[in-house]
């Protein structure tokens, strides 16, 4: 007779996998990707190291899935914020604002997802993550162009350029320090959002209005 997992067994296995990923996320948020090691993650998740290997046969697979999970959360948050906006231009502003808050809320984790050197190959997962986020930004730019709010442009290239600017300015080596203060964080988010809107062709006065109206997501987005 073929063994079939019961619903409770499936739920238990899924919960254990989620606990392992949550432990890996917490470790990365505190110490970067260098802190994502099988044994410490197992301790955080309250499971044996062998159990971690059962779900993720290698550290590369664990980190790759962590990158994918964090990116899925970010993409969902971007879409929620943009879909709740009243028009295509405000949707673009909301999308950019959400990306900025995402990377600023836990910068060690964001840097780990983006570019921190690791001793295993996670380039495929990183590239997929960036492609999905860039594609969402491109879709929002395209909607604003089609509505006549922005000039015609290569929306894919524009989105890639905006995403690169956001990441470099907020979590790269040249990013400003001391952004734990909520007022400074808000200023940084609004500054990069204004820059992004101007870059794709929003007139200054209109761009400033969109920035002021944009609702900042909860700061804990990355760790959600």
Structure notes:
There is one protein chain. The protein is an all-alpha fold and 224 residues long. Helices cover 72% and strands 0% of the residues. It has 2 domains: 1-57, Arc Repressor Mutant, subunit A, CATH 1.10.10.60; 59-213, Orthogonal Bundle (Tetracycline Repressor, domain 2). The protein has helices at 7-31, 38-45, 49-55, 59-84, 88-105, 107-114, 123-146, 155-171, 182-199, 204-213. Keywords: DNA-binding.
Low-confidence stretches: 220-224
Structural class: mainly alpha
CATH superfamily of the largest domain: Tetracycline Repressor, domain 2
Number of domains: 2
Termini gap: 42 Å
Largest sheet: none
| CATH topology assignment of the largest domain | Tetracycline Repressor, domain 2
E-strand count: 0
Helix and strand run:
HHHHHHHHHH
Helix content: over 70%
- The CATH architecture classification of the largest domain is Orthogonal Bundle
Number of helices: 10
DNA-binding region: 37-56
Domain HTH tetR-type: 14-74
Keywords: DNA-binding
GO molecular function, one term: transcription cis-regulatory region binding
Summary?
The protein is mostly helical and 224 residues long. The chain has helices at residues 7-31, 38-45, 49-55, 59-84, 88-105, 107-114, 123-146, 155-171, 182-199, 204-213.
């Amino acid at each position: 007779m073929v063994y079939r997992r019961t619903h409770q067994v499936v739920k238990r296995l899924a919960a254990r996998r989620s606990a392992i990923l949550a432990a890996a996320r917490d470790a990365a948020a505190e110490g970067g990707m260098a802190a994502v090691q099988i044994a410490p993650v197992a301790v955080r998740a309250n499971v044996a190291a062998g159990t971690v290997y059962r779900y993720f046969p290698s550290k590369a697979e664990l980190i790759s899935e962590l990158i994918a999970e964090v990116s899925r959360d970010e993409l969902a948050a971007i879409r929620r914020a943009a879909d709740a906006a009243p028009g295509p231009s405000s949707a673009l502003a909301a999308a950019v604002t959400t990306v900025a808050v995402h990377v600023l809320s836990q910068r060690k984790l964001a840097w780990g997802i983006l570019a921190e050197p690791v001793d295993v190959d996670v380039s495929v997962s990183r590239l997929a993550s960036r492609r999905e986020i860039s594609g969402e930004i491109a879709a929002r730019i395209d909607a604003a162009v089609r509505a006549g709010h922005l000039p015609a442009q290569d929306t894919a290239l524009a989105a890639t350029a905006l995403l690169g600017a956001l990441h470099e300015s907020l979590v790269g080596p040249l990013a400003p320090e001391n952004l734990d203060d909520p007022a400074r964080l808000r200023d940084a988010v609004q500054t990069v959002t204004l820059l992004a809107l101007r870059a794709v062709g929003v007139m200054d006065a209109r761009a400033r209005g969109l920035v002021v109206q944009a609702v900042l997501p909860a700061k804990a987005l990355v760790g959600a």
